[in-house]
Amino acid sequence: MRNQAVSLIQSDRSETWQEILSDLITDPQELLQILRLDAQSSPYSLDALTQFPLKAPRPFVERIEKGNWQDPLLRQIWPCESEETHTEGFVADPLHEEEFNPVPGLLHKYQGRVLLTAAPHCAIHCRYCFRRHFDYQANSPSRVQWEKAFAYIANDSSIEEVILSGGDPLAISDKQFHWLLQQLANIKHLTTVRIHTRLPIVIPQRITPELVRCLSETRLRLVMVVHCNHRQELDSTVYRAFSALSDVGVTLLNQAVVLKDVNDNSEALIDLNKALFQHNVLPYYLHMPDQVAGTEHFYVTDQHATELIKTLHASLPGYLVPRLVRENPGERGKTRIA
Ligand code: SF4
User: Does any ligand 1 atom lie closer than 6 A to the CB of residue 233?
Assistant: First the structure.
């Protein structure tokens, strides 16, 4: 059992995270109105909206600069017409994840680790998402299917780590999350649970005292990989969430995706990694975008990304330089590029 001092997250907003989650911005017209923008400059795509609806939490939208179409946060959520472009090689399931799906909700791609899709939805729809075409309904386990997933893990003693992914695993309730963690803690050979989540960034109010208490009580080693792409996504409420997590011994790492016209310049990445480190989060991966249909406009070349990493090495201590990686279809681990 780790440090019992559970920090309270004091939010600048009065709503609970569930209230924020049930009041997401889903109408592009509302987003335009809040941001004082005119759709004529960047029309939205109805096809893109049908395929992958707009979802944006209000605390995230508050960090977008009004009147600025070039805002790096807006670019991550705006369903623009470029999503209708079809480029050869950009497909619905670029990682062939279905091949590694032995039990609904469980992916076994990596040696010693399995991935559970703990929640069938996210708090935000990131337009570059590599799972935007993923069949969450088919991979949204019932209790019976959860039992099958736990049995699969219990029967393979080479599995030491469970990666909770999604959707966003923190989109489930504290009660469900507590139950899930308890079931995993009961499997003796598991040592670590890694939680990949964007919720501490987009709705930091999600890091409730109840959740922090639950994390502090498990015997499992906990790693939380927050997904933050730009310094502008961070504010004082996010920092308080990081503090509450690190106070109870959760290891905090960041995985960013290098995205054209969002963060594909060295200044943005240096700023991001310095700010994260100031708040106990270490840069972990800088991911190349996956070749997902509808996301071509975010793509950067290997050469450009490698140049960025070289500049980061020249400007930052080594521990603040993330590993530049990509996932190749059929491979059991990430491939390091630089
Ligand atoms: S939070 Fe992660 S899984 Fe969800 S839409 Fe964004 S990138 Fe995809």
Answer: no
pTM higher than 0.85 for the full model?
A: yes
Tell me the per-residue pLDDT of 69-116, one tens digit each, with 9 for 90 and over: 999 999 999 999 999 888 877 777 766 666 667 787 888 888 899 999
Residue 165: give the domain boundaries: 17-254
CA-nearest residue, atom 4 of ligand 1: 122
pLDDT tens for each residue of 145-157: 889 999 999 999 9
Say which CATH number the domain at 94 has.
Answer: 3.20.20.70
| 77 within domain boundaries | yes
125 lines ligand 1 (CB under 6 A): yes
Is the residue at 314 inside a domain?
no
Distance, CA of 287 to CA of 299 (rounded, Å): 11
Of the candidates 290, 260, 277, 288, the residue with the CA atom closest to the CA atom of residue 321 = 277
Q: How many domains does the chain have?
A: 1
Helix axes 209-217, 236-247, angle to 10 degrees: 30
